């Protein structure tokens, strides 16, 4: 995809994501900064901040767990490990995500059951485990391109289904399976 294609898809994703009542009405959203050819998060993050939502961004720790900081705009992002961009401001601690109303998760694909295929680093698996341990129940939403919604993805015992996937063409909701 060209940079222009990625930007257009990101704008469409922002519009679609804001159609979800969970996102539109969220006071706090744990998001991420898209990099490379990932579906763009910039337009969505800007729209959320403009609506007065508190947007948290991940900070990759040495053990691949995630700390969090506030999104203070694109000009306040710094380069980090693995080509990521992270907020420059104060760190809020790994537990900050437990206070989010919505957690946006990156993914390579999601299947029609809501199972997410990540990049294999386990950072978001730790986030999902932390949420469960805290009894937190935010909406779990993955941002994808249309062709990344698949019939089935590989699944491991610790994987948890997400509630929805947003693609440029629409919102796809899932009924999580009992675990």
UniProtKB/TrEMBL annotation:
Q: Supply the EC number(s).
A: 6.3.3.2
GO BP term, example: tetrahydrofolate interconversion
Going by the UniProt record, its keywords in alphabetical order are: ATP-binding, Ligase, Magnesium, Metal-binding, Nucleotide-binding
What does the record list as coiled-coil region(s)?
Answer: none
Among the GO molecular function terms of this UniProt record, one is: ATP binding
Positions contributing to substrate binding: 33, 38
Cofactor(s) annotated in UniProt: Mg(2+)
Does the record carry Transport as a key word? no
Broad EC category:
ligase
Binding of ATP, residues: 116-124
Stretches that traverse the bilayer? none
Q: Which Pfam families match?
A: 5-FTHF_cyc-lig (PF01812)
Q: Which domain of life is it from?
A: Bacteria
Metal-binding listed as a keyword: yes
The record's catalysed reaction(s) read: (6S)-5-formyl-5,6,7,8-tetrahydrofolate + ATP = (6R)-5,10-methenyltetrahydrofolate + ADP + phosphate
What is stated as this protein's family in its record? Belongs to the 5-formyltetrahydrofolate cyclo-ligase family.
What's the protein here called?
A: 5-formyltetrahydrofolate cyclo-ligase
